Amino acid sequence: MSKSNTFENELMLLVFNNIDMTGVGDSGGLRGSVTAGSLFVSLHTADPGETGNQSTSETTYTGYARVGVARSSSGWTVTGNSVSPVANIDFGECTASPGGAITHFGVGTASTGTGKLLYKGTVTPNITMAVGVIPRIKNTSTITEE
Questions:
Q1: Per-residue pLDDT tens digits for 79-119
Q2: Cα–Cα distance for residue pair 77/53, rounded to 1 Å
Q3: With a threshold of 0.85, does the pTM exceed it?
Q4: DSSP H helical ranges for the chain
Q5: What confidence tens digit (pLDDT) does each residue in 38-50 have?
Q6: Residues with Cβ < 8 Å from 11, sequence gap 6 or more?
Q7: Residue 69 and residue 17: Cα distance in Å, rounded?
């Protein structure tokens, strides 16, 4: 069983743009946060899986940190049951210990630590890490609800 296109799009608007989802529950629907905050994008050297969290297979190269993206239309574009970052998401430059290739990304709730992983996806093409590399998730990257 799948979700309807309307529900998928409204769910993404709630999660990524902090826009209320009307018609669910009480008369106000599912409400966005009083303070929208940010979602945090992470990079991974393997698929964190369905049971993983933000730190599962997360890269550890020197210079890496998760990147916060505002939960608003200035951070994310939601349309047609998919979401993309408004701008490229650039991570810190690798200055040492590059580790394995970046094969996956995640979107979660915490700037550090285990954090709740909300969405995950494949990085195509994979990013081969080396000193001097600045990993980037392009604004043409999409997450789609199906």
A1: 988 999 999 999 999 999 999 999 999 999 999 999 999 99
A2: 24
A3: yes
A4: 5-17
A5: 999 999 999 999 9
A6: 3, 21, 145
A7: 10
